[in-house]
């Protein structure tokens, strides 16, 4: 069988170029799928079908003339953390109310310039704070996968949970995500798709709502790495409006798929064998090593001694920055305002009503670690430990080209299995956070299913700006894993 | 260890987040357990280590001194919850 | 002579440090491309960066950095090649992001100094602790509505230099002299227009008092946002008085922020602002550390204009003007330039005399500034030339200058038009004097019997008779001769 929902982004692109299919057809098929299935998934916060159809029409005109950018006519979903000109942007928070940005983020502007068609804004954890997409003011996004033995709703991971669910279910051909401590890689692993967190500074942060400025990085999420490579090539690039953007050319990422891994040195960080890790995750990891070895790579054990401090360091640094970044949501210039007779009363009421529980908790912790008398003990110390974490990676990369680890310590869990202790919840990010702290690129590829039929991912971590080697190694795993499973809820499956 | 109500209230006041009394208690517990957990960083020897500022990849860059932005009052005010003519408005601030 | 305030328990010394916020002269704001120009319709000089919209990011303006470095050079200060921007977190209606980007831990400029001249002719060195770059806030307007404040963000994000002095100031006079000198330096370099009415220069004043001889500082109070030099001087005086009264009554001064009310001539506590201050400074993760090259600093230094102290020294050496004259002539660069144009090709001492005297008086009278002076430097030079070559005397020259101001005619045209050329014909002078002496026989007798003071009377009468045109030296000489006959 080969229907419109079997297209990958790459094959759709080729079919559009050769006029086997029109952009309007492709877009309409996806709009239909969203209407059909998103009631169950809640992956969209805002749908923009009219705008999408309009964009598809324009794309068809360009394609008919043999013109159009590399994404001409490709329907995508946008994480609702990217500001989109004239389209409501919420960060999944009540506090932004009906905020309609009069500007476009650099990343989405790049995609539009290349001809992409936006189907709407995708669900996420409020302000990207979470690992299960349960912290959304618009309700949780739901994983299209189900366990073999249960109908329980599984989480799609977070914070880019809506992006992951929509891609996995075939509602979009690709999506943008953002990753602060694992928010692209962990949901990609939970939903059986691929996702790349590029090097910090690779994609502009301009126009993307900030969680933690020194960590936030946009990246692609799609069904495979070829699709991710195509998207990343469009999203990436220097932007003078972001002082942390790096001025280095964007390579042809798609071409790097074919590089292979012969002679590649793959590091296995011994500290990632954490206590209590499920056997099937260990087994999958071993499988990944075997696949890469069989493809010609050399497997080398390495040490990242400060790994165990990654999470606490991350939470101090990220929450401190977040407490300051979210101060602008005060009910004065945009977003929800709760009236009060005094200015301070207005601030306190608006922020109390506008922010969800987890966001409040994080703002308060971030405020605490920066406050007088605590700064040195927490924030300053954490930034020093962060230097040590980065040094661990730089040292390891003197000896190896990429690192291989599991993406997450478990597969997707059910909504009602969410740990009540916030620290337990944070442990989800244990493998993804260190690379974020160091600023190095990392990706997740689907590698298999766990015993209950839920997808698991493997993570590859690379050198600064060496996304190409990362993609090459990831593609070797993709080929060996031959992951062709589909979730229970999918556009290509008739209900 | 749970953070006491006074501390939670002071932090919430700094962050301008109004809390209900029952929230003060649960937040105190949550924050306390997170703070306890991050305490493990105290074991790390950071002697002589510089704090990380940025990832060290981008080169310092300065903008040319030219007026390239602004003059967009409609955009600036387009999302204002309350305004009066060309101004944002807030409850009167008494100096 | 040290400044002292006498209280009930004896004399007190005051200790003052100033934090001056000087608006940087630049086209665009510190971190956005919106105009930094003063004024404008409300909320028009505002970009979405300044208004703190989601996802907006700061990018540093190079010229603002250059202006800070130039100022640092003008204060003979350490230039820090590494500096950093921190966030100062607090909520206020005119602070859109909820934090001010400032330089807390690593300012761009370190220790420097300002030399100030005092009225008694002495000079003092006031230390500068640091100078850093930061953003201005917007403006809250409180008087337009009974229940609401209006917010205008035009100023939000404009670059400021905060220049912090050491607590070296010991009198209101020194505070005033420091501010005037600082403003003069900033104007010379062109880094701040120093216009206190438009708020482009404001001062926070830290005041404490102590007994002479005490080496430790007592608790200080900070008087926020004083916007004129006169008010700074007044505020110091009344605040010191207030503190002395507290100490003398056996109380203690609380460290706090206060406001100066010039109408009631008192300072008032701003306790509301004190409420739980905890700025939670941390490095702004949206910006990289600011690293500048020594070679760039050197280039900026080479391009600096001559600074006030150097200019004074040169004027004194080159033109022989006094220390006092050089201070007045160098208040503004334009005045010094004007002076030098006059002095080159005229009697330089005479030129200084005339500028400080009749010329400034004429400017004052007409309400003009040096830039739009009714008399050009060349015109004044011509007038002084006429004195030097004895075409007219000093007294007539005053009349000519007034005519120049009024008509715009040149000095020589006026002299010809009015026939003011001075009389150097000794015969005419002698005949005029003889007439005067003949008419005042009694006075001549008195003079001869020892009343020397009457000489001035005879000079006056003679000049009057000659309609002021007599050559003063010849008149004197001839009078002496005839009176001794």
UniProtKB/TrEMBL annotation, chain A:
GO terms for molecular function: ATP binding; glutaminyl-tRNA synthase (glutamine-hydrolyzing) activity. Keywords: ATP-binding, Ligase, Nucleotide-binding, Protein biosynthesis. It is an enzyme of class 6 (ligase). GO terms for biological process: translation. InterPro entries: Amidase, Amidase_CS, Amidase_dom, AS_sf, GatA. The keyword Ligase applies. Gene3D superfamilies: Amidase signature (AS) domain (3.90.1300.10). Allows the formation of correctly charged Gln-tRNA(Gln) through the transamidation of misacylated Glu-tRNA(Gln) in organisms which lack glutaminyl-tRNA synthetase. The reaction takes place in the presence of glutamine and ATP through an activated gamma-phospho-Glu-tRNA(Gln). Belongs to the amidase family. GatA subfamily. This is Glutamyl-tRNA(Gln) amidotransferase subunit A. It comes from Gluconobacter albidus. The lineage of its organism: Bacteria, Pseudomonadati, Pseudomonadota, Alphaproteobacteria, Acetobacterales. The gene is gatA.
TrEMBL record, chain B:
Its EC number is 6.3.5.-. The gene is gatC. Heterotrimer of A, B and C subunits. It comes from the Bacteria. Keywords: ATP-binding, Ligase, Nucleotide-binding, Protein biosynthesis. Allows the formation of correctly charged Asn-tRNA(Asn) or Gln-tRNA(Gln) through the transamidation of misacylated Asp-tRNA(Asn) or Glu-tRNA(Gln) in organisms which lack either or both of asparaginyl-tRNA or glutaminyl-tRNA synthetases. The reaction takes place in the presence of glutamine and ATP through an activated phospho-Asp-tRNA(Asn) or phospho-Glu-tRNA(Gln). One of its GO terms (biological process) is regulation of translational fidelity. It catalyses: L-aspartyl-tRNA(Asn) + L-glutamine + ATP + H2O = L-asparaginyl-tRNA(Asn) + L-glutamate + ADP + phosphate + 2 H(+); L-glutamyl-tRNA(Gln) + L-glutamine + ATP + H2O = L-glutaminyl-tRNA(Gln) + L-glutamate + ADP + phosphate + H(+). InterPro entries: Asp/Glu-ADT_sf_sub_c, GatC. Signal peptide: none annotated. NCBIfam families: gatC. SUPFAM superfamilies: Glu-tRNAGln amidotransferase C subunit (SSF141000). GO terms for molecular function: ATP binding; glutaminyl-tRNA synthase (glutamine-hydrolyzing) activity. Pfam families: GatC. The lineage of its organism: Bacteria, Pseudomonadati, Pseudomonadota, Alphaproteobacteria, Acetobacterales. HAMAP family: GatC. This is Aspartyl/glutamyl-tRNA(Asn/Gln) amidotransferase subunit C. Belongs to the GatC family.
TrEMBL record, chain C:
Its EC number is 6.3.5.-. Keywords: ATP-binding, Ligase, Nucleotide-binding, Protein biosynthesis. PROSITE patterns: GATB. It catalyses: L-aspartyl-tRNA(Asn) + L-glutamine + ATP + H2O = L-asparaginyl-tRNA(Asn) + L-glutamate + ADP + phosphate + 2 H(+); L-glutamyl-tRNA(Gln) + L-glutamine + ATP + H2O = L-glutaminyl-tRNA(Gln) + L-glutamate + ADP + phosphate + H(+). It is an enzyme of class 6 (ligase). Gene3D superfamilies: 1.10.10.410, GatB domain, N-terminal subdomain (1.10.150.380). GO terms for biological process: glutaminyl-tRNAGln biosynthesis via transamidation; translation. InterPro entries: Asn/Gln-tRNA_amidoTrfase_suB/E, Asn/Gln-tRNA_Trfase_suB/E_cat, Asn/Gln_amidotransferase, Asn/Gln_tRNA_amidoTrase-B-like, GatB, GatB_C_1, GatB_Yqey_C_2, Gln-tRNA_amidoTrfase_suB_CS. Coiled coil: none annotated. SMART domains: GatB_Yqey. Residues 337-483 form the Asn/Gln amidotransferase domain. SUPFAM superfamilies: GatB/YqeY motif (SSF89095), Glutamine synthetase/guanido kinase (SSF55931). One of its GO terms (molecular function) is glutaminyl-tRNA synthase (glutamine-hydrolyzing) activity. Belongs to the GatB/GatE family. GatB subfamily. Allows the formation of correctly charged Asn-tRNA(Asn) or Gln-tRNA(Gln) through the transamidation of misacylated Asp-tRNA(Asn) or Glu-tRNA(Gln) in organisms which lack either or both of asparaginyl-tRNA or glutaminyl-tRNA synthetases. The reaction takes place in the presence of glutamine and ATP through an activated phospho-Asp-tRNA(Asn) or phospho-Glu-tRNA(Gln). Heterotrimer of A, B and C subunits. This is Aspartyl/glutamyl-tRNA(Asn/Gln) amidotransferase subunit B.
């Amino acid at each position: 069988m080969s229907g419109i929902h079997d297209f990958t982004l790459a094959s759709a692109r080729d079919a559009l170029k050769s006029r086997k299919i029109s952009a309007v057809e492709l877009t309409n098929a996806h709009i239909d799928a969203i209407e059909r299935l998103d009631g169950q998934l809640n992956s969209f916060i805002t749908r923009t079908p009219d705008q999408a159809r309009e964009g598809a029409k324009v794309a068809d005109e360009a394609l008919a003339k043999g013109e159009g950018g590399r994404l001409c006519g490709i329907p995508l979903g946008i994480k609702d953390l990217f500001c989109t000109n004239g389209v409501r942007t919420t960060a999944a928070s009540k506090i932004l109310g009906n905020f309609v940005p009069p500007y476009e983020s650099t990343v989405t502007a790049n995609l539009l310039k290349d001809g992409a068609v936006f189907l709407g804004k995708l669900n996420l954890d409020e302000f990207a704070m979470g690992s299960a997409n349960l912290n959304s003011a618009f309700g949780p996004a739901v994983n299209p996968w189900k366990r073999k033995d249960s109908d329980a709703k599984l989480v799609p991971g977070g914070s880019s949970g809506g992006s992951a669910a929509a891609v996995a279910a075939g509602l979009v051909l690709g999506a943008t995500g953002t990753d602060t401590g694992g928010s692209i890689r962990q949901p990609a692993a939970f939903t059986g798709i691929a996702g790349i967190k590029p090097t910090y500074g690779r994609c502009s942060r301009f126009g993307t709502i900030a969680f933690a400025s020194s960590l936030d990085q946009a990246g692609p999420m799609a069904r495979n790495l070829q699709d991710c490579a195509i998207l990343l090539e469009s999203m990436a690039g220097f932007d003078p409006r972001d002082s942390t953007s790096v001025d280095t050319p964007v390579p042809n990422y798609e071409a790097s798929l074919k590089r292979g891994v012969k002679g590649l040195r793959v590091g296995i960080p011994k500290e990632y064998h954490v206590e209590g890790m499920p056997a099937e995750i260990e087994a999958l990891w071993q499988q990944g090593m075997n696949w890469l070895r069989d493809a010609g790579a050399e497997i080398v054990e390495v040490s990242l001694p400060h790994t165990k401090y990654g999470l606490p360091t991350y939470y101090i640094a990220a929450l401190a920055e977040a407490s300051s970044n979210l101060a602008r949501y005060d009910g004065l210039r945009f977003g929800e305002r709760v009236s009060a007779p005094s200015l301070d009363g207005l601030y306190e009421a608006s922020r109390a009503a506008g922010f969800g529980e987890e966001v409040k908790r994080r703002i308060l912790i971030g405020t605490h670690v920066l406050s007088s008398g605590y700064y040195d003990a927490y924030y300053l110390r954490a930034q020093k430990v962060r230097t040590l974490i980065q040094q661990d990676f730089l040292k390891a990369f003197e000896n190896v080209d990429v690192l291989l680890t599991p993406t997450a310590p478990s597969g997707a869990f059910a909504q009602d299995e969410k740990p009540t202790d916030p620290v337990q919840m944070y442990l989800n990010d244990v493998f993804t956070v260190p690379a974020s702290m160091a600023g190095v690129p990392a990706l997740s590829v689907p590698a298999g299913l766990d015993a209950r039929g839920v997808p698991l991912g493997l993570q590859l971590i690379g050198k600064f700006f060496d996304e190409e080697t990362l993609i090459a190694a990831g593609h070797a795993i993709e080929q060996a894993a031959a992951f062709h499973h589909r979730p229970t809820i999918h556009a290509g499956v008739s209900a | 260890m749970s953070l006491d109500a006074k501390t939670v209230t002071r932090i919430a006041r700094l962050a301008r987040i109004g809390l209900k009394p029952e929230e003060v208690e649960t937040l105190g517990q949550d924050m306390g357990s997170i703070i306890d957990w991050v305490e493990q960083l105290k074991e790390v020897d950071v002697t002589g280590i510089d704090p990380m500022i940025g990832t060290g990849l981008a080169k310092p860059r300065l903008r040319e001194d030219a007026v390239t932005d602004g003059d967009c009052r409609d955009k600036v005010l387009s999302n204002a919850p309350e305004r009066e003519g060309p101004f944002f408005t807030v409850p009167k601030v008494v100096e | 002579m040290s400044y002292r305030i006498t209280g009930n328990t004896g004399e007190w010394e005051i200790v003052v440090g100033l934090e001056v916020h000087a608006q940087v002269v630049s086209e665009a704001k510190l971190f956005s491309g919106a105009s930094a120009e003063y004024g404008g319709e409300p909320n028009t000089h505002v970009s979405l960066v300044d208004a703190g919209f989601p996802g907006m990011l700061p990018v540093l303006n190079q010229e603002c950095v250059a202006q800070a470095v130039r100022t640092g050079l003008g204060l003979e200060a350490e230039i820090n090649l590494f500096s950093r921007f921190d966030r100062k977190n607090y909520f206020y209606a005119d602070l859109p992001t909820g934090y001010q980007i400032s330089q807390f831990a690593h300012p761009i400029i370190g220790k420097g100094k300002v030399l100030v001249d005092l009225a008694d002719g002495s000079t003092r060195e006031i230390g500068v602790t640091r100078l850093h770059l930061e953003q201005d806030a917007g403006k809250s307007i409180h008087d337009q509505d009974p229940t609401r404040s209006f917010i205008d963000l035009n100023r939000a994000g404009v670059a400021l230099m905060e220049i912090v002095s050491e607590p070296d100031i010991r009198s209101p006079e020194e505070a005033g002299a420091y501010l005037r000198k600082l403003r003069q330096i900033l104007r010379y370099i062109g880094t701040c227009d120093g216009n206190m009415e438009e708020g482009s220069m404001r001062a926070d004043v830290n005041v404490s008092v102590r007994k002479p001889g005490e080496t430790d500082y007592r608790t200080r109070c900070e008087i926020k946002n004083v916007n004129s030099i006169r008010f700074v001087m007044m505020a110091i005086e009344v605040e010191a008085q207030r503190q002395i009264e507290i100490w003398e009554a056996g109380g203690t001064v609380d460290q706090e922020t206060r406001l100066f009310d010039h109408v009631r001539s008192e300072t008032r506590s701003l306790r509301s602002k004190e409420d739980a201050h905890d700025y939670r400074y941390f490095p702004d993760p949206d910006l990289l550390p600011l690293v500048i090259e020594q070679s760039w600093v050197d280039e900026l230094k080479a391009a600096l204009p001559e600074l006030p102290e150097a200019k004074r020294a040169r004027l004194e050496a080159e033109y022989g003007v006094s220390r006092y004259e050089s201070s007045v002539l160098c208040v503004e660069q334009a005045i010094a330039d004007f002076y030098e144009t006059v002095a080159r090709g005229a009697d330089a001492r005479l030129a200084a005399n005339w500028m400080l005297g009749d010329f400034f008086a004429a400017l004052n009278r007409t309400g003009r500034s040096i830039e739009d002076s009714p008399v050009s430097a060349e015109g004044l030079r011509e007038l002084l030339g006429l004195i030097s070559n004895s075409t007219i005397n000093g007294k007539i020259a005053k009349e000519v200058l007034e005519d120049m101001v009024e008509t715009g005619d040149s000095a020589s045209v006026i002299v010809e038009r009015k026939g003011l050329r001075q009389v150097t014909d000794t015969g005419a002078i002698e005949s005029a004097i003889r007439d005067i002496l003949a008419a005042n026989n009694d006075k001549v007798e008195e003079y001869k019997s020892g009343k020397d003071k009457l000489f001035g009377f005879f000079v006056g009468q003679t000049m009057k008779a000659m309609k002021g045109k007599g050559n003063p030296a010849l008149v004197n000489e001839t009078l002496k001769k005839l009176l001794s006959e």
